Amino acid sequence: MSRIAILIVAAGKGERTGRAGPKQYEPLAGRPMLRRTADVFSDWPLRVVIGPGQDALYRTAMGADAPAPIIGGARRQDSVRLGLEALADDAPDFVLIHDAARPLVSRAVIARTIAALEAGATGAVPMLPVADTLRRKDGDAWITVPRDGLLRAQTPQGFRFADILKAHRDHAGADATDDVAIAELAGLAVDAVLGEEENLKVTTEKDFALAERLLGFLDGRSAGAALHETRSAMGYDAHRFTDGDHVWLCGVQVPHDHGLEGHSDADAGLHALTDAVLGCISAGDIGQHFPPTDERWRGAPSWKFLDHAHRLVKDKGGAILHCDVTLICERPKIGPHREAMRARIAEILSLDIERVSVKATTTEGMGYTGRREGLAAQAVATVRLPARD
Ligand code: MG
Questions:
Q1: Distance between CA atoms of residues 317 and 58, nearest Å
Q2: CA distance 69 to 86
Q3: Distance 283 CA to ligand 1 centre (A)
Q4: Which of 224, 230, 293, 323 would you call most buried, defined as having the most Cβ atoms within 10 angstroms of its Cβ?
Q5: Which of 225, 246, 276 is nearest to 379 (CA)?
């Protein structure tokens, strides 16, 4: 498994937006732009390069648990070089360098960049063709510039760490607007991967408005049907009571006069929810991914199953929007643990707790849950996925 580090460059003063502070700390659809950008890369170790004097802004935007920022330099490339130097002790295999001002980068673009590096590329950059006709002023006249072969470079730009660190050290004096330019000076080959129009660089106030409109699409708040689709699926699970003094439900240990029988921790709530999430991407069921015959999953905590299903959704460029679990049992009483269960599921899925619902019911003494032979759980998950043609 290759070791990948993320370097986010957030050192700009952002003067072109006309806003009071640096743009990367400004709210974008309710969240600081830098935080939105960093959240997309939450699966990898990440460091952020900030401008001198931006510590307080950084802490406010990123929260108390954020990794220590790296203080950048005068130009973007100085900031990147200082960021790479700060990573040198860890010496990851690859580094992805990304602009904080591209908060709409998708996991699909990140995955393509990483895939190119893991396939052996020295460098990889998301690119898009130029659709508009290009013209250049030549004295008083305009000259049309042939756009054949012209491409627009985005970020993240991925490189073998040692190569790009050396390139930045060797060419610290050159002028470069991105890291591919530095790589070129060092003679490093860089592969193109497919970029995305949505991965725009937020520079002006108009860009903020456009990005917020796109996030509206992404959040499903407006007519985004052309870009994304929303899917719901359900899951169901039941486990039998056995000897014990606690049960695991929705990731929370609940004291009880019985335990639950099962190969893993028998958390029917998380099993039902895992199946619901898998159902949204038609990825089979929990038993296919984690066979009960596999010794690895004996006694396993079920959050691992849910986390796996969540990753599969993210790998498709999707996101979980909401989940709703109903626990069906006479005992134990769920009410006292309901908020802890919501909080735990929200934590496992990195979701706002408002997007997590846990409910409970009995079957009025009827059936196997009524006879207290075991308990059952139902779940519905809703995910957003990139639209398919
Ligand atoms: Mg189960």
A1: 27
A2: 10
A3: 17
A4: 323
A5: 276
Topology of domain 4-215 in CATH is Spore Coat Polysaccharide Biosynthesis Protein SpsA; Chain A (3.90.550)
Distance from Cα 237 to the centre of ligand 1, integer Å: 5
| 236 CA to centre of ligand 1 in angstroms | 9
Of 76, 88, 15, 22, the C-alpha closest to 49 is: 76
Q: What's domain 227-386's superfamily in CATH?
A: 2-C-methyl-D-erythritol 2,4-cyclodiphosphate synthase (3.30.1330.50)
Q: How many angstroms does the Cα of residue 287 sit away from the middle of ligand 1?
A: 8
Give the dihedral sign, CA 137/140/144/149: negative
Residue-wise pLDDT for 44-54, tens only, equals: 999 999 999 99
Domain boundaries, the chain: 4-215, 227-386
Q: pLDDT under 50 in the chain at which residues?
A: 220-226, 389
Q: Report the amino acid identity of residue 280.
A: C
Residue 170 Cα to ligand 1 middle (Å): 57
Query: Tell me: the pLDDT tens digits for 133-165?
Result: 999 999 999 999 988 889 999 999 999 999 999
State the pLDDT at residue 221: 46
Q: Give residue 266 CA to ligand 1 midpoint distance, Å.
A: 5
Beta carbons of 201 and 99 less than 8 angstroms apart: yes
DSSP labels, 111-140: HHHHHHHHTT-SEEEEEEE--S-EEEEETT
pTM over 0.90: no
Cα 238 to ligand 1 centre (Å): 6
